[in-house]
Write a structure and sequence with these properties.
Rossmann fold; six-stranded mixed β-sheet; about 525 residues
Length: about 525
């Protein structure tokens, strides 16, 4: 049984635009997505519009149980490439033709306009170009109101689709577009009335719990070579301390929530993080920091988290030092072990993230990584045997708009390295991401419009309500797209301007190759 507070209900007949905001992943993930909740708040703040939520695997709205096909606009918020499959499943289950051309050919113009946005869409929307009418590139606050205003003026938006090109940040296939971001974070849309979920079912409990999502910053200044978001949302922009405190107080007054989840690419990089944490604690809030950057974690940061009642933190050393440095994550082991020791002394549980498949990595590197993980375990046992540690090992996935965008993906190499690590770390609490899913994510991240057919082929002809997650994956076909690009190749996302010159990425990539040649 799912009950929610702070949802918004309007009469669909009394507004000009009925928009379905669709999240193609599970409820617990959707309701911890800041971007998804921003869209809900922004659209419903307009008197002329009503935004309802549709969350996978459902294809009717939560607010009024309206079928997806009856909305004017269907807007997908996509944070993970693997959710591209779910986009097509939701459309198919709603009896909406999958392809743009098929919807356009309908004489009665009865189907909704399909739009999409989110980080992976902003970086490379090409794999979904056959299925989505238009894309929003960048942060939605800058584009959304202008888009809705334009929509109201058009008699047939699907047939007048190029009219939207007047708006910066709107992308149509093969057109030039500039990524848009909020310049002043105090002017961004801050959630002061979040939806509160009431349920005993674990599937409907938000991943971050019922909490106030406080957006402390966007963008990053670190330039880790594998991180798409780090380049996509440059520069780093911070919300002022007063704005954050006022938003937190306002949200608590409206919801009764006392838990704060600080949201940023790296919360500990916020320039006033310790002052913010202390002030929130003084105001009686509990604090969660889902994203911490090792080199900016201080003892005070950890102590504030502990005082707030936090029991666990997440750290990402990524690899051994030589490979970590190659990723432009130049954190020495002394600093990492210092943070780990301080965390263990405060009895934190720690989850560690590591990458494999880094350029220049070999089997000797993997053996060194195994010893590195064993040492962390020894460190824990010497300080706090009661604390729990978990390890997650993930294939590095080259992404568009990063120095790794020309690289391929070698599934055999990844499998070989995972086999060695599993053998050496049998008794550890360690999870390995699937090499097969890594391949699929690589293809979805770095290939063009031609991949649309492969995505569509992976959707079952008949959707099984009891097994909606089912896919028809022919891994051999996907592996045919595992090769990288030559440095002189035209890349599929060449028309998307994120504010960084291609020559910068080329220089970084060539430097990377020279480092281990």
């Amino acid at each position: 049984m799912l009950n929610e507070e702070n949802i918004i209900i309007k009469n669909p007949l009394e507004v000009d635009i009925n928009l379905a905001s669709v999240y193609p992943n599970l409820y617990r993930t959707a309701m911890s997505s800041l971007g998804y909740q921003i869209i809900y708040g922004m659209v419903n703040a307009r008197e002329d519009s009503f935004c309802e939520r549709v969350i996978y695997p459902n294809h009717r709205s939560i607010e009024t149980n309206t079928p997806l096909s009856e909305f004017d606009i269907v807007s997908f918020t996509i944070q993970y490439e693997q959710d591209y499959f779910n986009v097509l499943k939701i459309l198919k289950a709603s009896n909406i033709p999958l392809k743009v051309e098929d919807r356009l050919n309908e004489k009665d113009n009865s189907y909704p306009l399909i739009i999409a946005g989110g980080p992976c869409i902003s970086s490379n929307p090409l794999p979904l170009a056959d299925f989505v009418d238009l894309f929003i590139i960048g942060e939605g606050e800058v584009v959304l109101d202008k888009f809705l205003d334009k929509f109201k003026t058009l008699n047939n938006p699907k047939k007048e689709i190029e009219s939207f090109l007047d708006i910066e940040g709107i992308y149509l296939y093969d057109k030039l577009v500039k990524r848009m971001i909020v310049s002043d974070m105090d002017d961004a849309f801050h959630l002061n009335s979040p939806i509160v979920t009431k349920t005993d079912e674990s599937d409907f409990k938000p991943a971050l719990g019922n909490s106030i999502l406080l957006n402390v910053s966007r963008g990053c200044f670190r330039s880790c070579k594998f991180c798409m978001s780090g380049y996509l949302y440059r520069p780093m922009r911070e919300t002022s301390l007063n704005k954050l405190l006022n938003t937190a107080i306002d949200a608590r007054d409206k919801t009764g929530l006392n838990k704060i989840s600080l949201v940023a690419p790296s919360v500990s990089d916020y320039s006033q993080i310790d002052e913010l944490s202390k002030k929130l604690l003084d105001l009686g809030f509990d604090i969660s920091m889902p994203s911490l950057r090792i080199e900016s974690i201080t003892k005070e940061t950890l102590e504030n988290l502990k005082e707030s009642g936090a029991k666990s933190i997440t750290l990402a050393p990524e690899s051994i030092y030589t490979l970590r440095k190659r990723l432009n994550k130049d954190i020495n082991d002394e600093k990492i072990f210092q943070v780990i020791e301080e965390a263990f002394k405060l009895n934190f549980n720690i989850k560690f993230y590591f990458l494999i498949g880094i350029p220049g990595e070999n089997m000797v590197s993997i053996e060194e990584l195994v010893e590195y993980i064993k040492y962390i375990n020894t460190l824990k046992n010497s300080i706090t045997p009661k604390s729990k540690i978990k390890f997650s090992v993930n294939p590095l996935i080259p992404k568009s708009h990063t120095p790794f965008q020309w690289m391929g993906y070698d599934i055999k190499d990844i499998k070989k390295k995972i086999r060695l690590m599993k053998k050496e770390l049998k008794n550890f609490d360690i999870k390995f991401d699937s090499p097969k899913m890594g391949l699929i994510q690589y293809v979805l991240s770095t290939k063009g419009r031609e991949i649309g057919e492969l995505i569509q082929k992976s959707i079952p002809d008949i959707l099984d309500k009891n097994n909606f997650d089912d896919l028809k994956i022919d891994i051999k076909q996907w592996n045919q797209h595992s090769k990288g690009y030559k440095i002189e190749d035209d890349l599929p996302w060449k028309n998307i301007d994120i504010g960084i010159k291609e020559s910068f990425f080329k220089k970084q990539y060539e430097q990377l190759l020279n480092d281990y040649d």
